[in-house]
Write a sequence for this structure.
């Protein structure tokens, strides 16, 4: 014959044993205070204990743990079934929900208990009776009718729910969720994987040219020399230099790229002040 209840595992270590032994006295001492006051006071008292007293509670916890193991072995030998902790059960339930979301064709966990089975069996009747009313009226009416049923009348629905639970548990034992395919990551081009620090001077010039070609308007026709491109990149005014050199009045002035760059550097890379300094206007 199986044991009626699963043995309770001792927790909290030495402090847990101290709290259990002194809970009544601590609760009385904290009468009228918040419930957290008991744990706070217990923590303070436990810290104030000497090593010998702490060792006594640790030994008590060790013995309680050993007794729990023996009781659990006897419980299982007698046909008992070990239940998962609430935290573990919650994690398993969440994992089950995730698998169900991924696979709409997987086993469906029954919900709602015996009342859910009762509601499903009588939904059409309740819907007709609540026609024209809010949908919440259906569950409200079903709840009222359910309360009126006797234990004998509820029994078939309770049995139906237990049957569904058993069928679901059996289905989950052999259920294998489908593999979720991870889309491949887009591959990077060889050019994009190269480090900027290793780009030679010629590539700096081509990069400047690429920036100009990518923009609309006259800037697309500007091609910087390698030396100027490198200096402009270092000064952080490549785009301003290209725009300045693309202006018609600057082109007609015959000013060199070096002169235009120097004008920008002397004016904090500001386009219009550099243009005035370059053209003397």
């Amino acid at each position: 014959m199986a044991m009626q209840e699963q043995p309770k595992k001792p927790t909290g270590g030495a402090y847990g044993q101290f709290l259990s032994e002194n809970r009544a006295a601590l609760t009385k001492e904290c009468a009228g205070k918040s419930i957290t006051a008991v744990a706070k006071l217990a923590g303070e008292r436990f810290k104030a204990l000497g090593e010998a007293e702490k060792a006594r509670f640790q030994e008590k916890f060790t013995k309680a743990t050993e007794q729990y193991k023996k009781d659990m072995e006897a419980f299982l030998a007698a046909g008992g079934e070990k239940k998962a902790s609430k935290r573990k059960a919650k994690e398993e339930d969440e994992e089950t929900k995730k698998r169900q979301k991924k696979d709409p064709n997987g086993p469906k966990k029954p919900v709602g208990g015996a009342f859910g089975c009762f509601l499903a069996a009588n939904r059409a009747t309740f819907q007709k009776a609540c026609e024209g009313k809010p949908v919440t009226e259906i569950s409200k009416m079903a709840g009222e009718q359910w309360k009126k049923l006797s234990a004998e009348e509820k029994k078939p629905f309770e049995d139906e729910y237990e049957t569904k639970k058993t069928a679901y548990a059996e289905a989950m034992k052999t259920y294998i969720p489908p593999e979720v395919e991870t889309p491949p990551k887009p591959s990077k081009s060889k050019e994009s994987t190269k480090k900027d620090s290793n780009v030679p001077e010629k590539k700096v010039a081509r990069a400047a040219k690429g920036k100009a070609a990518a923009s609309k308007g006259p800037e697309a026709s500007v091609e910087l020399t390698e030396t100027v491109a490198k200096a402009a990149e270092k000064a952080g005014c490549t785009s301003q230099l290209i725009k300045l050199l693309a202006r018609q009045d600057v082109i007609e002035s015959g000013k060199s790229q070096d002169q235009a760059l120097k004008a920008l550097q002397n004016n904090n890379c500001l386009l219009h002040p550099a243009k005035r300094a370059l053209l003397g206007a």
